[in-house]
Design brief:
There is one protein chain. By secondary structure, the chain is α/β, with parallel strands linked by helices. It is 46% helix and 8% strand. It is built from 14 helices and seven strands. The chain has a five-stranded parallel sheet, with helices on both faces. A two-stranded parallel sheet has the order 5-7. Helix 2 packs parallel to helix 11, helix 4 crosses helix 14 and helix 5 runs parallel beside helix 12.
């Protein structure tokens, strides 16, 4: 026994489905047109911590700032030194701004940051502090990193402003609705590193702004097992030496350059590796030609201060900032007021 029976002709089905599909097609076409002609609202922030940092540092190069001392370097500088706290601890409390990025950006990108900031704030900067992990000397920049910086700093193409469709796997335009419209109404959850700590891209940018371009690393330290690493025979490549010379040449006249290495966990490097740091720093300076080297920065710190192999956690950041302030005080230019 049948209680009900429905008969649906193809024509009836088409009348139900076709209008909906037509509306979706029209919306998709409008979104794609808005994307290609840059007519859609710009996303307020990145959807992951890395893009949020790159976007923030790019804007900081041209934004109003009283900074007289600039921090540049890789991610160990980004999370290793709190620019706001460094300013408080330095003699005379000069305003400090961190423009640190990631290890896969070339030194020339770091130099471009400084040149752009100096052009937007003429005669203001007196010192640049370059801090990197020693591994930076032997790490080639990632392919396309220069283009990535240019696209963030001078967005010209639609994919520079909104992102690439292939990155989201959504050709109908749903990702454009999320990035260009919903992101202005709702907080955008982060993906990847830092998602658990910051939660949202807006929180990452807010932290960077509050701490003058510095970030906190929430990761957990993982102890290694097995014997310590033996000494490694490594040499600075001609390509990195050329990068270093180009970086130095990009610094405007009158700006003092100070350089140093960030620490590693004391459980990781061998004794020989620690001893080699001073040698590598001196060799690097043959092409970098820094005005002063922070040779007394500690090569290692206790593992409890780290949230990864090279990244300091907030406790380590506080300790290393204190050390950098103490060592940097002696390298300040003579015209900067000093207090006992």
């Amino acid at each position: 026994m049948k209680s009900h029976e429905y008969k649906l002709a193809w024509r009836d089905l088409a009348q139900c489905v076709v209008p909906t599909l037509f509306i979706l097609a029209c919306v998709s076409v409008l979104l794609q047109a808005g994307y290609h002609f840059a007519l859609l609202p710009r996303p307020p922030s990145g959807i992951d911590a890395d893009s949020a940092v790159i976007r923030h540092q790019s804007q900081a190069c041209r934004a109003p700032s009283p900074a007289e001392l600039l921090l540049v370097g890789d991610s160990t500088c980004l999370v290793g030194v709190d620019a706001r706290e460094l300013s408080r601890r330095l003699p005379g409390q000069p305003p400090v701004l961190s423009l640190a990025l990631y290890v896969w950006f070339s030194l020339e990108v770091y130099g471009q940051e400084i040149a752009d900031f100096a052009a937007a704030h003429p005669g203001q900067v007196h010192t640049v502090v370059l801090l990197v992990t020693p591994g930076k000397l032997f790490t080639a920049p990632a392919q396309g990193s220069g283009a990535l910086w240019r696209s963030a700093h001078h967005p010209e193409r639609a994919e520079d402003v909104y992102g690439s469709p292939s990155a989201y796997g959504d050709w109908l335009g749903g990702w454009l609705v999320r990035r260009c419209f919903f992101s202005h109404l709702l907080a955008v959850p982060l993906n990847g590193s830092g998602a658990d700590y910051y939660g949202f891209a807006s929180a990452t940018e807010a932290y960077l702004t509050a701490h003058k371009g510095s970030l906190a690393n929430p990761g957990d330290f993982v102890f290694r097992t097995g014997p310590a690493e033996g000494p490694q025979e490594r040499s600075i490549t001609p390509e990195f030496e050329a990068e270093s010379r180009a970086f130095r040449a990009m610094l405007p006249a009158g700006i003092r350059l100070v350089a140093g290495f960030t620490p590693r966990p004391s459980s990781h490097p061998s004794f020989q590796e620690r001893a080699q740091r001073a040698q590598f720093l001196a060799r690097w300076n043959e092409s970098l030609r820094a005005d002063a080297l922070l040779t007394n920065l500690p090569p290692t710190l206790p593992p409890a201060f780290f949230g990864g192999d090279v990244h300091l956690n907030p406790y380590g950041q506080k300790r290393f900032t204190e050390i950098v302030a103490r060592e940097l005080a002696a390298a300040l230019p003579p015209d900067v007021p000093k207090v006992p």
